[in-house]
Amino acid sequence: MTNPFDLTGKVALVTGANTGIGQAIAVALANAGADIAAAGRTPPDETRAQVEGLGRRFTALPADFSSTAPIPTLVEETVGTLGGLDILVNNAGIIRRADSLDFTEADWDAVMDVNLKSVFFLCQAFGRYVINNGRRGKIINIASMLSFQGGIRVPSYTASKSGVAGLTKLLANEWAGKGINVNAIAPGYVETNNTTALRADEKRNAEILARIPAGRWSAPSDMGGPAVFLASAASDYVHGTVLPVDGGWLAR
Ligand code: NAP
């Protein structure tokens, strides 16, 4: 019997794969057999070493997603270098914190541009490639607990991640019948650069930990298995879902 989680021969484009959740997902997909194109603004040298160490091919594509400028060529470059494209992981993201009364337009736009606008146009570029070439594809967007909850002092982040959840469902409706599975992973509280400030705040850290049924913060590698599932044939009938990977946070 074939392994439904096997990604041998597949190519995945992962944004923001130099660190944190993106790196862990890239390595997990490579471990399941996929070759990796890593698109982002910091050279993903550590990720390259891990992916190549697993015997998979790796290419780094410089891209700054604060604008849509790099998007039109990314799919073409991935296909040109690795021979195809089957999986898109929209992981790159940022957060800005301030009281809503003081929140600036610049902090609104910066977060929406990376977390939502570029995500949509990357999905569009991927969708066009897959559908125009009669292929099958898997999109995994990285959502958040703030795709479900309101949060506090992060208005553009909450708006962007709620938008990612909505977009995931909309694209699933349009593309489920065209051979593309569009889903999202909503990580709980993960130990990455994104949460350094939260973990450094003793009071917030204790409050967060007390609410997580699993009793610990997530490691980036906790996102690997769910990503492999959503990238593989094992999830062929899964469309438009936002999968919480949160140690039980939303169950409280
Ligand atoms: P991270 O360690 O800060 O990684 C963020 C990644 O996004 C980095 O690779 C970063 O590149 C990239 N990025 C940011 N702005 C970019 C831009 N303009 N152009 C290209 N790449 C850019 O944080 P993380 O926690 O792994 O975050 C990954 C995703 O998970 C984000 O979408 C985040 O919102 C989401 N998430 C995180 C948590 C958590 O608890 N950590 C929870 C829920 C959701 P540089 O290294 O060059 O900045």
From TrEMBL:
It holds the Pfam family adh_short_C2. It comes from the Bacteria. Keywords: Oxidoreductase. SUPFAM superfamilies: NAD(P)-binding Rossmann-fold domains (SSF51735). Its EC number is 1.1.1.125. The keyword Oxidoreductase applies. It is an enzyme of class 1 (oxidoreductase). One of its GO terms (molecular function) is 2-deoxy-D-gluconate 3-dehydrogenase activity. Belongs to the short-chain dehydrogenases/reductases (SDR) family. This is 2-deoxy-D-gluconate 3-dehydrogenase. It comes from Azospirillum rugosum.
